[in-house]
Amino acid sequence: MVVRELSPRVTAIKRIIDVVDGFIILEDENGYEGKSKSNIYKIDKEFKILWEIKEPSPGQILFKHIECIGGVLYVWNLASGRGELDPATGEVKNWGFTPFGFDC
Q: How do the domains of the chain map onto residue ranges?
């Protein structure tokens, strides 16, 4: 059996979330400044990129945290805005301000 090692696209991997059809990756946001791609993306089991988060709000494509709370994937951007991440599409919904680490 051949095992491939997962390597980051730009910086270092902060978090890997295993989902049914692949992995959701959060890379360290430092080093992404000025790039037109997000530091959260999904790959399949063959390491092909399926999606990356598009701009959920103007100028906000970099994220500092991703967490599964009560069966929902949440992402926090650099300004502490929190949204719900759809793992199938990469779309962020129900965007709002919630301080990091605070769960309602």
A: 13-97
Architecture of the domain spanning 13-97: Beta Barrel (2.40)
Predicted structure pTM score: 0.83
In this prediction, residue 33 has a pLDDT band, given cuts at 50, 70 and 90, of confident
42-83 tens-digit pLDDT: 999 999 999 998 766 666 788 999 999 988 999 998 877 889
Burial of 61 from C-beta contacts in 10 A (0-12 / 13-18 / 19+): buried
Q: Bigger pLDDT: 9 or 95?
A: 9
Residues, the chain, total? Answer: 104
Query: DSSP letters along 50-93, please?
Result: EEE---SSTT---EEEEEEETTEEEEEETTSEEEEE-TTT--EE
Q: Tell me the CA distances in angstroms from 28 to 21, 46, 54, 70, one per residue in order.
A: 23, 22, 17, 24
What per-residue confidence (pLDDT) applies to 4?
Answer: 60
